[in-house]
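In keeping with the milestone schedule agreed at the kick-off meeting, the structural modelling team has produced records for the first pair of proteins. Each record is given below as a sequence line and a structure-token line. The laboratory manager (R.T.) confirmed that both were archived under the project's standard naming scheme.
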Amino acid sequence: MTTVLIVDDQTLQRLGFRMLLEAQPDISVVGEASQGQEAVRLTAELRPDVVLMDVRMPGVNGIEATRRIVESGGRSRVLVLTTFDLDEYAYEALRAGAAGFFLKDARPEELVVGIRAVAAGDSVISPSLTRRLIDAFTTSHPQRTSGALVLSPGQRRQLAVLTEREREVLAAVATGWSNTEIAAHLHLAESTVKSHVSRILAKIDVRDRVQAVIFAYDVGLARPQ
């Protein structure tokens, strides 16, 4: 059974999510919160598998709440929801450690699949949204595309431990490709790609593919097209 904490400042929105999720035989809603501080407290108390987190809320917003939940080191993973696909806070939410990003106008079945994936340890974010998030980031950080990329000592160490093949796989992950697509592109077995991705996450010390994408752009393995 996958347990979920719903966080949204809109009562009707929370009710809609609860009705959808409680109709699933393998998902249980263990609580609701209307703002970020309450979400952090309830996450610590209830230890849900997934926190369904709104971004824009009064008081402690979804970004800061996500950061606090992730930094606590607990088992709960955060799936952030936003109304707009170009939400100005999207990149920072992923930076804060969110396991994925969904739009509130996603189809119900997509959201359910996304929650299950996040609970299983995967990350969920559409390639198109990944593309727009990265574009927005590089627009506000022109040094990322100017050739004047300066890596921190930690980033240099993380990059140095990756093999050439692992760098290729990470660059492919940063395009938003699935394991199946990466396998076809690099002429590898899908199981081999999965093994590479697991080793990459461990070597660069990130939680999931979303954070790996951010790392790839930070160190120059991927660049806007």
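The second protein of the pair:
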Amino acid sequence: MISVNDFKTGLTVEVEGDIFTVIDFQHVKPGKGAAFVRSKLKNLRNGNTVERTFRAGETIGRAIIENRPVQYLYASSQEHAFMDNETYDQFTLTSDQLKWELNFIRENMNVNIISYKGEILGINLPHSVELKVAETEPGVKGNTAQGATKNATLETGLIVQVPLFINQEDVLLIDTRDGKYISRA
């Protein structure tokens, strides 16, 4: 059990049978009435974000999440195969479980699987990944004052805004938290 007063961003908790990670929290001490904690929680089973308010000092269950290194093998229709790097066991996850992550993973890429009491909840991506530009229009020199961007389609199908000097076949560093261009790799 953990007190809501000890909330930290990234903490995983169990509330009403569901597993959540704390995205944001705020301790509120109104002038009149009891203190409370306003929080934004992300459900790890379905990806929904909810806002919950807890009384100060209230205790809830702490969820211990297990991270294991796995390798993404291949995709077949709506299923994606992974292999545990330690035991070589293979398992699949559906496209619905990996909506956002599919924008960043390639075959043979190493990621971390997150599970709770044997139930696989999803994958953890690194903060940034290297992806190749599959298609982009050529940038024309001198057609802008400063900071102009264009669309680039990456090898995974993700479309990002990139500077004009980026060309097809360039390898880019992409932030997996918001899907934005960081730099050339």
